[in-house]
Design a protein that fits this description.
A 7-stranded parallel β-sheet has the order 3-2-1-4-6-7-9, sandwiched between helices. Strands 5-8 form a two-stranded parallel sheet. It contains 9 helices and 9 strands. The chain has a single domain (4-245), classed as Rossmann fold (3-Layer(aba) Sandwich). The protein is of the alpha/beta class. Strand 2 (28-33), helix 2 (41-44) and strand 3 (48-52) form a beta-alpha-beta unit.
């Protein structure tokens, strides 16, 4: 039996690759986009229901999910993909810029989850996957705001995984490394509007230059990422975190080993902070 997917940000990048892979395998997709291109052949496919939706607009989210359920009868897989990047030192990012980022990358995710979960709970099955980025597993210089938004979603997903398991709903975080999409374009990557002179020769601004100079040169192939993810979904069992890309896997493994070494360095003394047990 074919699956019914709802994929946010399905017009381009990884979201589009995920949608194309699902359709290629005979599934049906509720493809949410902020703007519809009338010449987009994918959106004209009989197995695709294109829906105009901004994840920060609760009314649009509710209407999109309802339209999908009315069209296909259920939702089997949700991929929260919509979001944007941010680059800049913590001091450079204004409160307004940070809140805007969180509104899309975190609250946009929760908006969609809140509408989809009741349907999955009633049907006693479903998969919820959120694209969290490698930046949801480890920090990066110049990405304090972005990492914060992605760490928040990883934490949400891990806790929600436990809450929804009794209802037959699986939850996972997707953590891709660098993939050759338009994510580093100005339409998807926001830079601090007020850069500070103090950071001019720092790694923060070097990161900004690297992102601009290496746009569309990333090592990851979106189509291969989509095929990889489809295989995991098709297996019927979601890992808690799904890392995509060799460098991503290597980097995160190294970071986790470093965390373990840190804990080991103070484990004995930390263990002495419990109340003494009197037998």
């Amino acid at each position: 039996m074919s699956r019914i997917w709802i994929i946010t940000g399905a017009g381009r990048g990884l979201g589009r690759a995920f949608a194309e892979e699902a359709v290629k395998n005979g599934d049906q997709v509720i493809a949410t986009v902020r703007k519809l291109n009338d010449n987009d052949e994918l959106m004209k496919n009989e197995n695709v229901l294109p829906v105009i939706m901004d994840v920060t607009n609760k009314d649009e989210v509710k209407a999109a999910v309802l339209a999908g359920v009315q069209k296909f009868g259920r939702i089997d897989v949700l991929i929260n993909n919509a979001g944007f990047g941010a680059s800049g030192a913590f001091e450079e990012i204004t409160d307004e810029e940070l809140r805007s980022l969180m509104e899309t990358n975190y609250f946009g995710v929760t908006n969609v989850m809140r509408e989809v979960i009741p349907f999955m709970r009633k049907q006693k099955s479903g998969m919820i996957l959120t694209v969290c980025s490698q930046a949801g597993a480890m920090g990066f210089t110049g990405s304090t705001a972005y990492c914060s938004s992605k760490f928040a979603v990883v934490g949400l997903s891990e806790a929600l995984r436990m809450e929804l398991a009794p209802f037959g709903i699986q939850v996972a975080s997707i953590l891709p490394g660098s993939f050759r999409t338009d994510f580093r374009d100005n339409s998807s990557m926001k830079y601090a509007k007020n850069p500070m002179q103090e950071y001019e020769d720092s790694a923060v601004h070097a990161t900004r230059k690297f992102l601009a100079d290496n746009n569309h040169k990333q090592e990851g192939d979106p189509a291969k990422a989509a095929a990889f993810l489809y295989g995991i979904v098709d297996s019927g069992k979601l890992p808690m975190r799904i890392l995509i890309g060799k460098k991503c896997c290597d980097d995160v493994k190294a970071a986790l080993l470093s965390h373990i070494e840190d804990i080991d360095s103070y484990y004995t003394e930390s263990s002495k902070t419990d109340f003494e047990v009197i037998v």
